[in-house]
Design a protein that fits this description.
It is built from 23 helices and 2 strands. By secondary structure, the chain is mostly helical. The chain has a two-stranded antiparallel sheet with strand order 1-2. α8 (about 140-160) packs across α15. The longest helix has about 40 residues, at about 295-335. The radius of gyration is 24 Å and the shape is globular. It starts with a helix and ends in a 9-residue tail after the last helix.
Length: about 550
């Protein structure tokens, strides 16, 4: 079945070749996607990866694993409501390209390179989680399965680009559906709701809302909320739509589908905890549980759905990273490059990122979470503030953006190094992504204010959103400072002091954005507001 499904994905990818004749066809599907296409792409990207994480965690922590999916659900809804329409009107292809359009070629090259080399880390993390279970059942090494997944992604993405993504995500959606049907049949056969009721008696912690850990839950929400500005793979798929409204509709449909993945991920994980306790990893325990209830071929189809989840996440990550490298980095180094050449470079970039994914899989085979932490730290730490500047702060300068990219990246990686590169235990109990983004925001703010000295003015807006944001940030910042001082011991022990510190810096950043403006623009506005003298001098 795995061989048949692999062949089907390769065929689907190559069928898409005829639709990817131009650069825009290859990168964003020629802006011709319908809402259902966006929905299956986003479902495969976020819901599939969430399902793997929830299934794994629900086996040991119960219903609290669902918070991961809730955080991702809110993230998709925010993108749909606030980002798709303005980004579609700008004809955005990548976040690194958006940064480059505002801040120039140097910023685009750095942002594109960071984005390109972090996306294989995300793909590796999910591939390793899937490979762990496959290794347990087949005896083949983790690295073998990572290599197999990486090469498959390369083969079908090379053909049609974004069209290959939508074709294969549609096939993955069929696999998801079969997986859910089989899983529900197994659940009602054994253990059923009676088994879950018994689990509540023997392991009541499985029904605790924070069993997975408060720090972990807050990190999920913090990461996804920050990621609404940086979700390049999601933007690239949603912005392939024919109209902004259709892209928005597709994202909202995907958010609805996500609820099914959350509920069933928790349900199947907890069912495995009842029937096959003590296995260790949820992704190993679930198929062992199913093997006690269902015929082997049905268990195989269920696990094929798990593989579809891993591929549904890995394909957009690899393709979006290759787009940043082959399109944004190359065009920043050679402004004269043609669309046709950039498509060729993007295909070569897929080869490079496939090699990186395999290398990453060999370097940290047993620690899938390690790659997610490193990727969040490197990409979010580098690109967060420049994107905020593009969207909300016209004063931000090119030097400030480049400084922010470098400062955020270096500080986050350095902090990770000080913590011994551990996936869960960080230096001073502060996640390195918060440190990276603090330096990122600070560099953009300070370098801009110093470089633009004399060309801007501080002023409190008389009315409007800027005034509300500025005063809201002031109140929130003061409240967070008081909280940080009075509850430092508790915040530090829970591992959330770093996030509170980051929010304080964000509050200050919002105040600066709200209360600064162009000096010339302010003067012009005042002049236009003055009553003009009539012909008689009145």
């Amino acid at each position: 079945m795995a061989v048949i499904y692999t062949v089907a994905l390769i065929v689907a990818g190559n069928v898409a070749r005829s639709r990817a004749a131009r650069g825009e066809d290859f990168w964003v599907g020629g802006r011709k996607f319908k809402p259902w296409m966006v929905a299956v792409c986003i479902t495969g990207l976020f819901s599939g990866s969430s399902y793997i994480a929830i299934l794994e965690l629900a086996y040991t922590t119960g219903i609290s694993a669902g918070w991961y999916g809730v955080a991702e659900l809110i993230h998709v809804i925010i993108i749909a409501l606030f980002f798709v329409i303005p980004f579609r009107k700008r004809l955005v292809v990548t976040v690194s390209g958006l940064i480059g359009e505002r801040y120039g070629r140097t910023a685009k090259a750095i942002a594109g390179a960071v984005t390109a080399f972090t996306f294989p880390m995300y793909a590796t993390a999910n591939a390793l989680a899937f490979a762990a279970a496959m290794s347990a059942f087949t005896g083949m090494s983790l690295s073998t399965w990572v290599i197999f997944s990486a090469l498959l992604l390369l083969i079908y993405l090379q053909a049609g680009g974004m069209w290959s993504v939508v074709f294969t995500q549609t096939a993955n959606t069929v696999a998801f559906t079969l997986m859910f049907i089989i899983g529900l049949v197994a659940f009602f056969l054994k253990p059923g709701f009676a088994g879950l009721a018994q689990l509540a008696v023997t392991k009541p912690a499985m029904y605790g809302l924070t069993t997975v850990g408060l720090q972990t839950i807050l990190a999920w929400f913090g990461t996804f909320l920050v990621n609404v500005f940086l979700a390049q793979a999601a933007f690239q798929m949603a912005l392939s739509c024919r109209t902004p409204e259709e892209g928005q509709k597709g994202l909202l449909w995907a958010a609805g589908f996500n609820i099914v993945f959350i509920v069933l991920g928790v349900l199947f994980g907890m069912a495995a905890a009842v029937v096959a306790p003590g296995v260790g990893r949820g992704l190993v325990a679930v198929p062992r549980y199913l093997a006690q209830v269902l015929p082997a071929p049905l268990v195989g189809i269920f696990f094929m759905g798990i593989w579809a989840c891993a591929l549904g996440w890995g394909a957009p990550c690899q393709f979006s990273g290759a787009t940043s490298l082959g399109r944004d980095v190359v065009s920043s180094l050679n402004p004269e490059v043609t669309d046709k050449q950039m498509v060729a470079y993007t295909k070569w970039s897929l080869v490079i990122l496939t090699g990186l994914m395999i290398i990453f899989g060999f370097l940290r085979t047993e620690q899938a979470a390690w790659w997610n932490v490193l990727a969040w730290t490197a990409r979010n730490g580098a690109t967060f503030a420049p994107v905020i500047g593009v969207l909300f702060w016209p004063l931000a300068t090119r030097k400030a953006a480049v400084s922010a990219l470098v400062a955020g990246f270096v500080s986050g990686i350095t902090w990770y190094h000080l913590g011994g590169w551990h996936p869960a235990k960080f230096y001073l109990n502060i996640h390195p992504v918060w440190i990276g983004m603090i330096f990122n925001v600070s560099a953009l703010t300070l370098v801009t204010l110093i470089e633009r000295t004399g060309s801007y003015r501080w002023a409190i807006p008389g009315k409007g959103a800027a005034r509300s944001v500025g005063f809201g940030a002031m109140v929130a910042g003061l409240a967070l400072i008081i909280l940080a001082v009075n509850q430092f011991t508790w915040l530090y022990a829970k591992g959330v002091f770093g996030m509170v510190l980051f929010l304080i810096f964000i509050a200050a950043f919002c105040m600066v954005i709200a209360f600064t403006g162009e000096e010339r623009a302010e003067s012009l506005a005042v002049a236009e507001a003055r009553p003009q003298a009539g012909p008689a001098g009145k």
